[in-house]
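call fold(seq) -> tokens
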Amino acid sequence: MDEQRTAEKVLTAVGGRKNVLDNMICMTRLRVTVNDPALVDRKALNSINSVLGIAQRGSNSIEVVFGPNVIDRIFKSFTDLTHLSQDMQVERPQHQSKKRSETPENKRSYDIQVKANTERAAQSPDSASMDTDDIELLEHMFPNAQAKSQAETGKQGTVAHIHASKLVNAPAVAAAKSVKSTSEGERLLIINGPNINMLGIREPDTYGTDTFADLLELCQQSAKEAGFKDCLCFQSNHEGDIVDQIQDAYYVFDGLIINPAAYTHTSIAILDAVKAIKIPTIEVHISDVPERESFRQVSYIREAAFETIMGQGIQGYRKAIFDMWNHLKAL
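ret:
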């Protein structure tokens, strides 16, 4: 492995040196704090060969998981590139007020709507039109976009016309087109909730001694063996981050395997998000939940899953991956 090249790829995927505020190492994870989270390319990070997975940490930090034999060398190469030490704290740039249209939240909402409109246009091109108010709203949200003028289109074009305007804040258009217009293979998203990143440390009598890195390596290898084109592993301790990741999966991933952890028993928001994207979902739990406390006997996510796997340790993920593959092939 070329650790220097790996570090360069990671730096590019997180938005470049100017976007990195801080970097540190935590067990086998490279934790990067960024100025603008919207510049982080999770797909690019996950495609790097030595990356086992990624985990969101708060609103502007991301953890990139590597194997224990390479993390130290990659971290050294990364800090050489950023010129930041593990202990160095960089002052954040002075806050500059942003237009409402430029916030990550608005961009996310817009991207999701673009994906939805793309799907509707593909299913029924004649019915997916946008009126004057729709286009004016997009132009207001994204003032830098070079939308076609009313004189050219009468502002009555289909969604395809909006795509042709090459909105600078709409990368989801290309993603939606490339994923659904080709037959390159199925894509799998695996989401883990709170404290799963503490595997091997947290209650080993209940969750086993396998580490989070072991889990990620198992998932990547199993997905490859099953036949998936790629597999994105995401973990967060924050409900909103999980909801965001689920929403981003719309029209991008073919299957979802999710272990919401403690949110299994509390989160209607995660259930609603999974139901909204309408992709096949499997619920996984490492421990044998029916044998545990009474407050763990409620699962909100189960309503949106076609299968639930419990009590098989991290091997339950492997079963879920192959079951998902067989399910997708049977559709």
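Residues 87-102, 125-183 have pLDDT under 50 and may be disordered.
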